[in-house]
């Protein structure tokens, strides 16, 4: 059974490295201002839901960079950011969410959802009572099906998968109408904010584990997020590096700002399938002026 004391605060790593892919068409403005979300119509509903797109997967960011190059010309530009992801909303199309519906079915009823949630609450010691052998086997079957989509956790860290599964389950339970929830389950309903925070905590812990134990980008679930405010060069949420990605005549990264994170170097080597060159521009480039401007 799940031990609620298994994870102490030392496992809760709030900040993670996320990537933003764009075109060198915007290099100068990024060096001077950082990443800025500036919609044409800030008051529109679409603009209020938008933001700077970032992903924990290099391949996703590179696809965005390629799209930007096709639209605006230039060459692919990748911005590595250190971000406190608890401050922002996760993309509900993340694989962690879609995988839940592989387990419960594409269109589970509220009754099915709350039934599995109740089993999880009791299993984690959050609701009084004991699971029967049949109920425990049922919950373990759901969890095993969920973990099947996350091979590294199935082998090495099943308790991390348990955390992630229950957190994703909670985000869906939070969407159930309070009247229907209270008629089927006699305990406090999770809120959208609390369940989202719990999901991001569980996701971040899991993502860090995978980052340190595999170089394969495919083994990590995708977390895409939108940041509505400025990401500059200082503070808790900040830009770590700005690099131009080239593959002609050789694979190389031209660093316009900062130091490339080890995570990026490993993932890019995995992406290109071989070593690549890292070049840094000299002091005559406006990068140094940009640093002064944002200090």
Describe what is shown at a glance:
This protein has twelve helices and seven strands.
Explain how this protein is built.
The protein has 295 residues and is α+β, with helices and mostly antiparallel strands. It has two domains: 17-90 and 225-294, no CATH class; 95-219, no CATH class. The protein is built from twelve helices and seven strands. It has helices spanning 27-33, 45-49, 58-72, 95-104, 110-123, 133-148, 151-156, 158-173, 178-184, 192-213, 262-272, 287-294; strands spanning 15-23, 52-55, 76-84, 224-227, 238-246, 252-258, 277-280. The strands form two sheets. It has a five-stranded mixed β-sheet with strand order 1-3-5-6-7. A two-stranded antiparallel ribbon has the order 2-4. The chain is elongated, with a radius of gyration of 22 Å. Mean pLDDT is 76; it is low at 1-13, 89-98, 151-155 and 283-295.
Give the overall average pLDDT. Answer: 76
Q: State the low-pLDDT regions, or none.
A: 1-13, 89-98, 151-155, 283-295
Q: Quick one: biggest sheet?
A: 5 strands, mixed
Q: Kindly give the count of domains.
A: 2
- Spatial strand sequence of the major β-sheet: 1-3-5-6-7
Basic shape: elongated
Number of helices: 12
User: Distance between the terminal alpha carbons, to the nearest Å?
Assistant: 51 Å
Count of distinct strands: 7
Query: What string, H for helix and E for strand, traces the elements in order?
Result: EHHEHEHHHHHHHEEEHEH
Give the fraction of residues assigned to helices.
Answer: 40-55%
- SS content category: alpha+beta
Q: Assess the beta-strand content as a share of residues.
A: 15-25%
Radius of gyration: 22 Å
């Amino acid at each position: 059974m799940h031990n609620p004391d298994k994870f102490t605060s030392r496992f809760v790593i709030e900040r993670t490295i996320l990537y933003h892919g764009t075109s060198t068409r915007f290099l100068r403005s990024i060096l001077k201002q950082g990443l800025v979300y500036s919609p044409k119509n800030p008051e529109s509903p679409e603009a209020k839901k938008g933001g700077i797109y970032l992903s924990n997967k290099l391949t996703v960011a590179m696809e965005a960079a390629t799209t930007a190059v096709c639209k605006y010309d230039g060459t692919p530009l990748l911005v590595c950011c250190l971000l406190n992801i608890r401050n922002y909303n996760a993309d509900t199309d993340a694989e962690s969410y879609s995988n839940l519906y592989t387990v419960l079915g594409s269109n589970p009823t509220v009754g099915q959802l709350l039934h599995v949630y109740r089993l999880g609450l009791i299993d984690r010691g959050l609701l009084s009572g004991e699971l029967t052998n049949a109920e425990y086997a049922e919950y373990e079957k759901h969890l095993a099906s969920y973990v099947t989509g996350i091979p590294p956790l199935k082998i090495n860290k099943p308790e991390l998968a348990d955390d992630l599964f229950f957190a994703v389950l909670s985000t869906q339970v939070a969407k159930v109408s309070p009247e229907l929830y209270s008629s089927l389950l006699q305990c406090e309903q999770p809120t959208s904010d609390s369940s989202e925070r719990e999901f991001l905590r569980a996701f971040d812990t899991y993502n860090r584990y995978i980052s340190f134990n595999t170089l394969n980008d495919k083994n990590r679930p995708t977390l895409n997020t939108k940041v509505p405010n400025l990401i500059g060069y200082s503070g808790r949420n900040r830009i770590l590096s700005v690099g131009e990605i080239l593959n002609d005549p050789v694979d190389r990264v031209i660093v316009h700002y900062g130091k490339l994170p080890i995570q990026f170097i490993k993932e890019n080597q995995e992406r290109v399938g071989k070593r690549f060159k890292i070049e840094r521009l000299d002091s005559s480039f406006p990068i140094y002026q940009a640093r002064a401007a944002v200090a």
